[in-house]
Amino acid sequence: MRPDADPAPQRIMVVRCPPLCDPEASPAGPQAARLFERVIGAVTGFCPNVEAAELGVCAFGVRGPARYFGGEAVLASKIIAAVAEVGVESRIGVADGMFAALLAARRAEPIDPVNPAGPADPGGPADPGGPADPGGPAGPAGPAGAVLVIPPGGTAGFLAAQPVSVLADQDLAGLLKRLGLLTLGDLAGLPASDVASRFGDAGEVVHRLARGLDLRPLAACPPAHDLSVAREFDPPEPLAEPVVFAAKTLAEQLHAGLAARGLTCVRVQVRATWADGEESSRLWRHDGLLTAAGVADRVRWQLDGWRAAPADGQYAQGGIGMLRLVPDQVVRATGHQLALWGEAVVSDRVARAAMRVQAMLGHEAVLRPVTGGGRNVSEQVSHVPFGEKREPRLAAGPPWPGRIAGAAPGVVYPVAREAEVTDDAGRLVTVTGRCVLSAAPARLVIGREPPRRITAWAGPWPLAERWWDAAAARRRARFQLATDDGRAWLTVVQDSRWLIEAGYW
Amino acid sequence: MLPALPALRDLLPRGGLARGSVLAVPEFGLLCLALAAGASAAGAWCGIAGVPEAGLVAAVGAGLDAERTLLVPDPGPAWPQVVASLLDGCELVLLRPPATVPVQARRRLEAVLRRAGGVLLVAGDWPGAQVRLRVITQRWTGLGDGHGRVRACCAEVTADGRGEAALTRTRWLWLPAEDGGVTLADPVDIPVPGTAVTRTSPRLRAASAG
Question: What is the Cα–Cα distance from A127 to A107, expressed in whole angstroms?
C-alpha cells in the first residue's frame, strides 16, 4: 500500500441528465438512449473525448476545455445551455476524480432564482469543501440546470462529509454504518491496510474512493463517428481470395479513419455475414501495430476456419454477403510501440503461425505452458492460451509441502487413468485412513493392457487437500511403483480406487 | 542443423537434428522431450501437437524453454494443416500422429518440412523417417521395497535410420539424471539386467522414505 504514490486524479466534469437516469421517468428505453445520444453530441461540441459512464451520465477531463472556454463554471453553463437546446435538463459536477465528480453532479441543485445566495446543499451542513459559486444562473430559458464545482484540492473535504450510503456497494455501506463509520471521512481516516485486511478488495476500493483517488483513468471514447468500415458483396462472393483482397482495402480505410482522428484501436473485430444470414465474428488483437496486409491475413485465417472443404474452396453458407471491420476499444494513439503480445520473445513469424492455428481450432487450442507450484504434478504446469499473459495458476514461490520430490515424470495424464493394484494373492491393495496398507503391491493392471509385475514401490504418502471446503476436499494416498518393463508410475488411491496420475519413461 | 543435448549427439548423424528431416521415436516419452530440449535450449521454438500428456516439468528440467513452446493438445482431424502451420513458425514440431497416416498427408508434410527447414519429431510410426530412436531398456533408481522415491533413470537408447544414419548406434544415458538433465551414463553406474532394481548406484545416497 503506497497511497502517496498515487497521482492526483484528473479534473473531471460529469454531465448528468436526471430525466434520463431515472428508469421510471417519462422517456423510456430506446427513446432515452436516442435522447442521450443527442446529449453526448451536444457535449462533444465542447470536448471531443466524452466517456459515457451510463445511460444519462457522461464525463470528460475538464482541464483543457475549461481553459479554452474561460473557466469551469463558464463551460458548465454553456454545456447546460447546449443540452437544454436538445430538450433535456442536466446537472453538472466538477471535482478531482470521477467518483467525486459524479457525486457533485448528483448533489447539484437548481438555483432558486429568488434566493441566489442559498446554493445547493452538497451534503449536509458540515461540508468543509463548500460548493463554488456556479457562475450565475445557468441557461436563460427551458429546462433548468445546476452546477456544483468542487475547487481543486477541496475534493477530500467534500467527500469526507458524504454519508457512506453514497457507495454503490450497499451491503458494505450498511456494514460500515453499523460499525459507526457514518461518513466517507470516517472511513478515509482509517489506515488503508486495516481496511483492506478487514474488508478485502471491496474495502480497498471504497477506501480509495473515500480518499478521493481514482479507480481507473478515464477511457477516452471516440466521438460519435462510426469508424467501422464495410463492404457489401452482391452477388455473395463464394471464394475467399476476392474477399481477402477487399479486406486489405477496407483495412487501409479503417487505419486512415482512425489516424485522421489521432486514434488507434486495441482490437479489431472482423464480421463476415454469409449469404444465408449467419455471421462469423472474431476479435483480433491490433494494438495499432497491424498493417493493412496484416488485417487481411487475419480475415483470411478467419474465413479459412469457416471453409468446409478446402479442396474446392467453396463456402457451405453460400458465399459472403458483407465484410465489416469494427475498431474495438479505441484509444488515443500515443505513438508508443509496445512489443506485440507484450513480450519481445514472440517473433512475428511464430505469432502468425499460432494465430493461424487459433483461427482453425479456436483461441483455447494453442497454449503456452507456464511452470508454477502445486502439490500434484498435473497442477505444476498452467496452460495459457496464446496471446494472453503468461502467469502460473499456482505460484512457484511458496513451499508446497507434500509435493513429490525427485525426478519429474515425462508423461502427465490430464485425466488420471483407472488402474488396479493387487497383492501376491490377487486381492486389491487397500489403504486405511491411517495409511496402513493391506498388503505389499505386486501387480499393476491398466485397462486391457497385460498385467505388469511391480518390482519396487514406495509410499503411501498421504495428502489431504482443501479439507476446509467440503466440495473440493480430497484425501489421497500416493505411491510410486516401478514395474518389470522398466517403467515407473505415480499412482494415487482415492475413495478406494487406484488412479495413475503420471508415468516415468 | 538444430543442436541436440550433448549426451544425445553421439546418437545422431552429424551430432544434431538435420533441418528438413523427420525423426521418429516409437512411443512418446522422455526421449522425445530430451530431443526437443536441446533445440529449445539453443533458442528454437518448439511446437508440441497431439500430446496432451507431455510432462513439461521434466522437459524443462532437461533444458526445454517453456517461453518458446507452443502446445496444441488436440489438433483434431485437420492435424496435417495444423502441423504445417506450426512448422511455419516453429523450428521443431513434436507430433503424435493418429494411428494411420495417409500417404498423401505424409508427403505433403514432408514437403512443407523441406521448404520451411524445420525438424519434425514424430512420437509414433513414420515410414519415411531419416532417423529412428528407441529406448531399449530402462531402469529407475531410488525406489525400494516400500521406501525411497524415483530419482533417476538409466536408459539404453539405440538409433538407426536411412542414409548417413544407417549405422546402428547405442548409448547408455541417464534419462533423466538426478538433477533432471540428460547425461551419458558411466559404465560403472549401468544397472546389470537381472539384479534388483533397488540396487543403490554409487551416485545415490541410501534411499529413505519421504
Answer: 12
What pTM value is reported for the model?
A: 0.57
Q: Could you please state the CATH topology (level 3) that the domain comprising B2-123 is classified under.
A: Rossmann fold (3.40.50)
User: A380 near B55, Cβ under 8 Å?
Assistant: no
Half-sphere exposure of B75 (CA within 13 A, CB side): 26
What is the CATH superfamily name and number for domain A229-334? DNA polymerase, Y-family, little finger domain (3.30.1490.100)
**For helices B79-89 and B103-116, angle between their N-to-C axes, nearest 10 degrees:** 10
Is A50:A43 a contact under the CB 8 Å cutoff? yes
Residue contact A367–B60, C-beta within 8 A: no
- Termini Cα distance of chain A: 48
C-alpha dist (Å) from residue A466 to A343, A375, A435, A470, A471: 35, 12, 19, 8, 9
Which ranges in A189-264 belong to alpha helices (H)? 192-210, 240-260
Q: Within an 8 Å CB–CB cutoff, is residue B72 touching chain A?
A: yes
CB proximity A406 to B under 8 Å? yes
Q: Which DSSP symbol is given to B89?
A: H
What is the rounded CA–CA span in Å between residue A314 and residue A101?
56
B88 sits in the region (left: phi over 0; alpha: psi -120 to 50; else beta) called alpha
What ipTM was estimated for this complex?
A: 0.89
Q: Which residue has the cell 503480445?
A: A341
The Cα B171–Cα B163 span in angstroms is 20
Helix orientation angle between A292-306 and A240-260, rounded to the nearest 10 degrees? 140
- Mean predicted lDDT score pLDDT of chain B: 87
Q: Where are the domains of chain A?
A: 3-210, 229-334, 411-504
Q: How far is A308 from chain B (nearest CA, A)?
A: 11
**Element at B41 (helix H, strand E):** helix B30-41
Which one of B32, B53, B157 would you mutate to disrupt binding with A, by most A Cβ within 10 Å of its Cβ?
B53
Q: Among candidates A263, A221, A216, which has minimal Cα distance to A43?
A: A221
Picking from A264, A328, A269, the residue whose alpha carbon sits closest to that of residue A299 is: A269
**How do residues A315-348 score in pLDDT, each as one tens digit?**
666 788 899 998 876 766 654 343 344 444 567 7
Name the residue among B57, B81, B180 with its Cβ closest to that of A377.
B57
Q: Which fold has domain A3-210?
A: Alpha-Beta Plaits (3.30.70)
CB B184 within 8 A of CB B172: yes
